[in-house]
Design a protein that fits this description.
Length: 238
């Protein structure tokens, strides 16, 4: 009888905690609710976070028409790269922008940061084949860019921020990595423009970006509006 009573109490306790877990739909920074097929059901300041594009999407990153669609050459010009710059490409993917920046920062350093080992391996092989010395690979996590404190003066994020599962923690780690007056160049497809043929969750509005970055210690310095499809939002560390 005692064993039966114990089993009943244990089952009731488990059911209680399971139900409690199902009703907890938010924490200090994030909320959780059903969303779209392109999202992870996690929201930050009213924005649903998108799924991460995996290694199988590398052909999209290296597509021949990318220069025409995004004017990536102009994007690089917007960074005003100096020979001694230390720049981190967060979510570097295949290294598309890394290999455009490295020749310009001749005496500086480009950090290629990604959480996917397959992406880093693709950069590693290309770096070796090209004999480039000023590129350093960094394996990031969902919550950190894993860069040394005060190590970079510029950060580039191209069409990746909207996929961060922990944007608050990631921005905190970038704030620490940036030197005084360091800048983040946030490149995101314009959420205000429905004509841009990109899924909704893979776009961001300027208003939404400002809301999120302001809450994490950054101020918008400029929106360089010279790209065909994307915002080029320049945030400064405060």
């Amino acid at each position: 009888m005692k064993i039966l009573k114990y089993l009943i109490i244990t089952i009731l306790a488990l059911n209680f905690f399971q139900c409690k877990g199902q009703t907890e739909t938010s924490n200090e920074n994030y909320s959780f609710k059903p969303g779209s097929l392109d999202g992870i059901g996690k929201w930050y300041k009213g924005r649903e976070i998108a799924h991460v594009m995996g290694y199988r999407g590398i052909s999209w990153l290296e597509r021949p028409e990318r220069e025409k669609e995004e004017n990536t050459s102009r994007l690089i010009e917007n960074l005003e790269i100096q020979p001694d710059d230390t720049i981190a490409d967060i979510g570097a993917g295949s290294g598309y922008h890394v290999f455009k920046m490295a020749p310009l920062a001749k005496t500086g350093l480009i950090y290629a940061v990604d959480i996917q080992e397959d992406m880093l391996q693709a950069i590693r092989e290309r770096k070796k084949d090209a004999g480039i010395k000023n590129i350093e690979l960094i394996k990031g996590t969902e919550k950190s860019v894993n860069l040394p404190e005060n190590s970079v003066n510029k950060i580039l994020m191209v069409d990746v921020y909207h996929e961060f599962s922990f944007p608050v923690e990631m921005l905190e780690s970038m704030h620490l990595a940036l030197r005084e007056n360091g800048k983040i160049y946030l490149i995101e497809y314009r959420g205000e423009d429905n004509s841009i043929p990109i899924k909704k969750l893979h776009k961001m509005t300027e208003e939404q970006a400002i809301r999120e970055f302001k809450a994490n210690g950054f101020k918008l310095e400029e929106n360089i509006s010279n790209l065909p499809w994307q915002h080029c939002l320049v945030f400064v560390k405060q």
